[in-house]
Amino acid sequence: MRTALTIAGSDSSGGAGIQADIKTMITNGVYAMSAITALTAQNTTGVTGIMEVTPDFLGEQMDNVFTDIRPDAVKIGMVSSAALIEKIAEKLKEYQAENIVVDPVMVATSGAKLIQEDAIEALKIHLLPIATVLTPNIPEAEILSGMKIENEEAMIEAAKKISENYHCAVLCKGGHQLNDANDLLYSEGEFRWFYGKRIDNPNTHGTGCTLSSAIASNLAKGYALETSVERAKDYISGALGAMLNLGAGSGPMNHGFDLKSDFIEKCGNSQQTCENVLQRDKEV
Ligand SMILES: Nc1ncnc2c1ncn2[C@@H]1O[C@H](COP(=O)(O)OP(=O)(O)OP(=O)(O)O)[C@@H](O)[C@H]1O
Ligand SMILES: Cc1ncc(COP(=O)(O)O)c(N)n1
């Protein structure tokens, strides 16, 4: 069985972070492991507390994983401090980790800041250059590229700039755009759009975590980057289209979505999503 490791923060409400990553990895057919960077006390309405682990303890978790069940892919989510980022980079290099997906989590859907200011610089210096693919949303891509993104041309320009500056592929996610939920992949000088109809679902807690974990799972299974993104986009459309509605704020998605339910009508990739997800379920 193929394996994946998530290095991220725990979300007590189960919608984002480590919990979303593990749910996604299991349903995408890989064995899931975790190295936890911080505990957060949060729910669908907000984050009330963050307790970081020490860099040494994070390193110890990674040592235990890599020296026993080596991950075929690694997903990195919330890492709030520069010292933790440096430790992750050191260990990934030591173990020559492959298929590294970096989701540069900065601000939660609920508005809480999940990264310290100096950690953004550490992210640029230590993690981006070793990433296989980086998955910023639009506000994160604006910070990393230093430019405003107000349309699809600017999305292409920003992704190109980040990719060239940090030598990694960039998937700029369009969930924060006004119209459709189209994501742009810029890799090795080429770009490709992954189109998605905007699903009328206010419960988007953990969409970024879920998408990056689904990409990591597919890379772990040996799919090429473009195919991994395509399959991950189908997965997120299915999970959002299942219209779970829990909690008082922006709620979590349904990872156990049922293909026979009516979600196909609601999600953008329609029949293709259904076929890809059926194929995925067969592989599991
Ligand atoms: N309403 C929606 N309908 C369809 N797809 C969506 C919707 N919202 C987000 N997505 C998709 O979900 C994925 C995550 O995108 P988004 O831009 O929301 O990331 P994010 O802001 O990092 O997520 P998070 O909410 O976890 O912070 C992308 O593939 C995006 O296109
Ligand atoms: C531990 C953790 N990691 C990531 C997010 C971002 O997810 P979202 O933007 O959907 O709140 C979060 N809220 N909590």
Automatic annotation (TrEMBL):
Its EC number is 2.7.1.49, 2.7.4.7. InterPro entries: HMP/HMP-P_kinase_dom, PM/HMP-P_kinase-1, Ribokinase-like. It catalyses: 4-amino-2-methyl-5-(phosphooxymethyl)pyrimidine + ATP = 4-amino-2-methyl-5-(diphosphooxymethyl)pyrimidine + ADP; 4-amino-5-hydroxymethyl-2-methylpyrimidine + ATP = 4-amino-2-methyl-5-(phosphooxymethyl)pyrimidine + ADP + H(+). The keyword Nucleotide-binding applies. One of its GO terms (cellular component) is cytosol. Residues 11-254 form the Pyridoxamine kinase/Phosphomethylpyrimidine kinase domain. GO terms for molecular function: ATP binding; hydroxymethylpyrimidine kinase activity; phosphomethylpyrimidine kinase activity. It holds the Pfam family Phos_pyr_kin. It comes from the Bacteria. Keywords: ATP-binding, Kinase, Nucleotide-binding, Thiamine biosynthesis, Transferase. Pathway: Cofactor biosynthesis; thiamine diphosphate biosynthesis; 4-amino-2-methyl-5-diphosphomethylpyrimidine from 5-amino-1-(5-phospho-D-ribosyl)imidazole: step 3/3; Cofactor biosynthesis; thiamine diphosphate biosynthesis; 4-amino-2-methyl-5-diphosphomethylpyrimidine from 5-amino-1-(5-phospho-D-ribosyl)imidazole: step 2/3. One of its GO terms (biological process) is thiamine biosynthetic process. It is an enzyme of class 2 (transferase). Belongs to the ThiD family. This is Hydroxymethylpyrimidine/phosphomethylpyrimidine kinase. The lineage of its organism: Bacteria, Bacillati, Bacillota, Clostridia, Lachnospirales. The gene is thiD.
